[in-house]
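Aim 2 progress update. The chain analyzed this quarter is reproduced below.
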Amino acid sequence: QSEGRTETAKARPAWKQNGMVVLGRFWFFPTTKEVVLRAPGEGLTWTTKPEFRDIVVAQYGTPSLPPTWRYFLASITLIMCSLCVFLFWLGSRFAGDRSQWHRALKEDSFIGFKKYMLSSHWPKVKKREAQERMKRRVSEYRQFYAAITAANPGPGRTVLLELLDSIEESGELEVGVRFQFGSSLKEHGERARDAIREIDERLAKQEALPAEVVSALQQMRLQKDSQLNWNVIPVRKHFREDKNKGRERIIARLIDRVFAKIFPERIVSFTLDKEGTAVSLEVTYDVSTTDSLYSQESEKNVSDEKKKFFTGIAFDWHFTMRKGAKILLSERLTSRPAAHFSVSGTAPGDIYKTMAMTAFVNFGKELLKFFGLGEADGQGERTRASSGQTHSELFRQFKSYLSEAGKDALDASVSNAAESFALAHSTDILEMAGAVNGELEQLVGIYVNGLAQGVDIGDLAGDVLGSLFDA
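Predicted structure tokens:
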């Protein structure tokens, strides 16, 4: 500070010398040194600018600064250590990426390459190749699906092929599923009374009816009237909206399971109540009672007036699949329970739950048929029992068949090869479809075993339910 002027410099504390604090600003490779001396007791500050150097040296002597070579050595050491740490980190990242890539290559599947893409590691050197391999595998699955459904395409085949095209573009497809429950159902007595009322209205105009029609109506009225006295277990309380939430989760998992069975590996996934997906599936369903009545086999020799009956049900499904604002399909299906099924006990709740589960499985079969993988008429248990064919085995045969025909040939040649494969392996395809339908039927056994242990799988957490279905 001199004559009212203050000279300052940005600096940092360095060391003390002769009771003074010496401040210095030194770079990694210093070319100049701006030394500032400050006397705390006097509140004065000096710098080493040339015009003040002589005064500073005369007053305090020359500060003994560290030699420049030490700064160079420290700087180089710090830079080298930092570089080694960075190179080690970078090498570990590349090594991890290489390991992930080799695992994906070893698995050689759409899911394997998708795991590589979704993994948190960096830098994903093979990202572009992984995307190409995923698209190539989806293209192969598309050709495979087109081949195995060529004989019985099903009305949903075109839509599914379009979805597969979108997978080829994006590398993945997740479908959000939303459910909406419709009307409540009528009890058997209500249906019987409605039927009697309708018959009476028709009989009131019997002059206009043929005699045989009148006789049939009168016989039907007697039958409905007698059924009013039967012991039919109420059904409505077992299908309230709150009771259906667990069933909706089962249905969503069942739909996911059905699509998982259409292809050798899971390339399309369905998630309940997930927003923002590229494709959405809206399912509206109604549960209604039917004229069918179920009874236990143990009471087959008991008179109708003394045995317990359970009302038959039917599910009417209306599912709409959208891709953005575009409606890909809008279809209605009806599923009914199996004519015969086994239960874990005689509690009405367990019986109606199992009845509903058999209806769900039949819904899954209807979906498979809708997308071209239904069982042929008369195929039944005979084909399932003899079937050792799985999707994976048939797909390997398909790839081998295409390879022999010239896998990388023109699209027309590949298409012809796919059609030839479908003709040559028609029996294998039917056996595979039978095996897939048979696997769906096994879900009823899983459900019944769960009820026997006091567990309704519809109440399980989503990940536990998914693992159970996948197993």
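The mean pLDDT is 78. The beta strands are 12-17, 20-25, 34-39, 44-47, 174-181, 231-233, 269-272, 279-294, 308-323, 326-335. These observations will guide the mutagenesis experiments scheduled for the next reporting period.
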